[in-house]
Amino acid sequence: MLAITTFLLFTGSVAVIAFLWTRKDDHHTATGYFLAGRSLPWIVVAGSLLLTNLSTEQLVGINGGAYAHGMMLMAWEVFAAVAMIIMAAVFLPRYLRGGIATVPQFLEQRYDKTTRRLTGFLFLLSLTIGFMPFVLYSGAVAMNGLFEIEAMLGVTRDTAIWLIVIAVGLVGGAYAVLGGLKAVAVSDTINGAGLFIGGLMIPVLGLIALGQGSFTDGIGVITTEHPERLNPIGGADSNIPWGTLITGMLLVHLFYWCTNQAIVQRTFGARSLAEGQKGLMFAAFMKLLGPLYLVLPGVIAWHLFQGDLPDQDQAYPALVREVLPTALVGFFGAVIFGAVLSSFNSALNSASTVFSLDIYRGLLRPDASDRDVVRAGRICGCILVAIAILVAPTIRYAPDGLFDLMKQITAFFEIPLLTVIVVGFFTKHVSALAAKVGLLVGMGNAALLNLVLDRTFFGVELHWLYVAFINFVLMVIVMLVVGRLSPRTTPYVPQTTNEVDLTPWRGLVPASVLVLIGVAGIYILFTWLGVR
Fold first, then answer.
1. What is the pLDDT of residues 195-215, one digit of tens each?
2. Residue 6: its pLDDT value, please?
């Protein structure tokens, strides 16, 4: 009962603070609703970025992967910092210069309206099928593991998962549909502080439990007993082969942190370029701590439970239940719930933005007023909530864990989208025809490589990240060839709208150098621990 009371108090407090902070904001204009009026300071940008990214699909999924495969899963966290540097230095200045609200809007400026509509539809599919259901399902797994909902209600595990998915989906939908981006960003920042504190508690308590009351003895266990599980460099047949780090892995990170609407929309709401860059770099520094609470707990769980769990996605909830004092279960459940809401409502807000601005106003009703656009976004949000709730419980059938499945599904859409954006950024003469042909080839090639050939070439099965890299290279070649044969009539010149101050942050270069040193240092440390 104490746990439930603590959970309700913390969750309710976050909702009240978010409401009081945003109740006077303008939610009737597209900029006010979708971009928080371009008023977010760097700390809110950073908090929203981190908690939009950090949710139970990460806590449950990556720690589950670490339980099964070891420390190599930290590549999903550490290499994100590299992509965030690229976003701050290369992508964000161009986005803000053009005054855009969505990534497909940039593609209209670079190519044409048809490209914007096509990519808007692909972004919508990626968020609706490849992200939101995974957040709901992983959140349900975590909440059921923490509070033992099935035992509390006397129902089966499947029924408990369904009930939690519905509850989280409805609450998250209310945040995003009624409050807009600023309510999402404010709640993200508050929950982020709680999740950071709670997340770091779990590995500390886990090491104490592993050392039978001694933190240092727990460290001794993971560094001396099967130390190979700390090695972050995977072999050729591992879950993350080392060669994927600079090929497919880097591409997936670039899409996620530089072009994924659910993420970059947080930076579009920054009050200036400098504030957006500060937020990104602070978030990049925090990403270097990711292995401590997103990967190490999975390794600790493997030592504690010795492979006795029914599946890898049970590792993190089981560890939390094992080591967390009862008095703190409610607090941690609340921040877990907040993390689920954050990722879900952020993705929902972004999907609604894409539909409203790129499909509704861009295709269905070009003359729609701001009120009509916001209304369409809210209606779309309600429909997407229902779809995500229906799809989420089916993820339990994933054979290799929810995180791997999520990344493989989203890569199907991500690589074609990323390629069109990257080629558009770095060329002036590639035409809209090349973009359309590239998208067609990219989607068709993804289906051929993954679904028809089952990632097998001449009897050799390739990792899905290598397949993603092959698709990227092929798309780039096709777009450059078509662009050469049928170029733009005039070279592309980026627009400048001056909607925000475009003065860059002077600390960007030194901050980037420090982050890169941190990335290298973390890999050197864990490689030494894993192979000595």
1. 777 788 899 999 999 999 999
2. 60
130 contacts: CB under 8 Å, gap ≥ 6 = 406, 409, 410, 412, 413
Q: Can you give the pLDDT at residue 417?
A: 92
CA distance 316 to 335: 15
DSSP conformational letter for 241 = B
By the 8 A CB rule, do 394 and 158 touch? no
E-assigned strand segments in 474-516: none
Place of tokens 């008095």: 327
Which H or E run contains 189?
Answer: helix 157-210
User: Rounded distance, CA 244 to CA 251, Å?
Assistant: 10
Q: How far is CA 249 from CA 91, 162, 244, 285, in A?
A: 19, 33, 5, 19
Residue 214 structure tokens: 């001694």
Q: What is the three-class DSSP state of 40?
A: strand
**Residue 521: which pLDDT band, with cuts at 50, 70 and 90?**
very high
Cα separation, 414 vs 468, in Å, equals 9
For the domain made up of 2-396+501-531, give the CATH fold: Sodium/glucose cotransporter (1.20.1730)
The alpha carbon of residue 504 and the mean position of all alpha carbons in its chain are separated, in whole angstroms, by: 25
Question: Alpha-carbon distance 127 to 359, whole Å?
Answer: 15
SS (H, E, C) 142-153: HHHHHHCHHHHH
Which residue, chain included where needed, has tokens 């499909």? Answer: 359
E-assigned strand segments in 418-470: 456-457, 460-461
**For residue 299, how many other CB atoms are within 10 A of its CB?**
26
> Residue 52 in contact with residue 342, Cβ under 8 Å?
yes
- How far is residue 315 CA from its own chain's centroid? 21
Nearest to 47 by CA among 331, 292, 324, 335: 335
Please give the Cα distance from 105 to 369 (Å, whole number). 17
Strand partners, 40: 270
Alpha helices in 211-272 (DSSP H): 215-224, 248-254, 261-268
Tell me the DSSP string of 347-366.
Answer: HHHHHHHHIIIIIIIIII-T
